[in-house]
Amino acid sequence: MTNFDDGRPLLADRKADVTLSEPLPIGQGYMVYERYEVSLRREGEPPLLQRRDVLRATTATAVLAIDLARDQLVLIRQFRIAAHLANGCGDMVEIVAGRLDLGETAHQAARRECLEEIGVAPDRLVELFKVVTAPGFSDEQVVFFAGVVDASAVLERGGLADETEDTQPFVVSIDEALAALEHGSVFNALLYSALQWLALNRARLPELLSGAV
Questions:
Q1: Do 15 and 8 meet the contact criterion of CB atoms below 8 Å apart?
Q2: Do residue 118 and residue 70 come from a single domain?
């Protein structure tokens, strides 16, 4: 891997030399919206002063639910108002996902979200990778898992009524799901990330999931 002169890897995120003000709350709803005054130090130059607003979305988990025996995936449909506003396609195809409850680990949340959204707990879970979904305006970090499930046991409808959540699980072949990447027919970033991972690692799935817990 290419490195900087000081030996740090070029292709790696790293800590910033930055000072932040105390957060100023500017909105409160399902999530908190905060404003920061930022001083970003730069070698040989004056500090760069910025004002940045951040949606404090915290950590979430996402699960690519795989039926290895049937070579299938369990996906869901769910209405997303932001997607509706962005492009008119608010009835989105997604993978299982949700936020961590207080005191939960990402692994625990992954199992819980599978039960809530598709009605089936994974037999095995393996952590894949993490992403910061929208670093320009949110601190949301998503931990991705692959989960081994029985696709024949999924519910026709899922979601928690007290969260006004309505998910519609459905089953597709892995080939169909990967073809959606080429067709440009899906727009959900978590789904795209998971399917791209699957396209790169499909041949290794039995090996990767054999030791999952």
A1: no
A2: yes
Count: domains in the chain:
2
Distances (CA, A) of 79 to 76, 89, 90, 101, 166: 10, 9, 5, 22, 8
Q: Please state, in angstroms and rounded to a whole number, the distance separating the CA atoms of residues 176 and 95.
A: 14
Are residues 48 and 65 part of one domain? no
Residue located via tokens 């790169």: 200
pLDDT tens-digit map of 123-158: 999 999 999 999 999 999 999 999 999 999 998 877
Cβ-based burial of 44 (10 A; exposed 0-12, middle 13-18, buried ≥19) = exposed
- Residue 105 and residue 29 share a domain: no
Regarding beta strands 45-56 and 91-94, do their DSSP bridges make them parallel or antiparallel, or are they unpaired? unpaired
Burial of 171 by CB count in 10 Å (0-12 exposed, 13-18 middle, 19+ buried)?
middle
DSSP strand pairing (96-99 vs 141-148): unpaired
pLDDT tens for 40-54 read 999 899 999 999 999
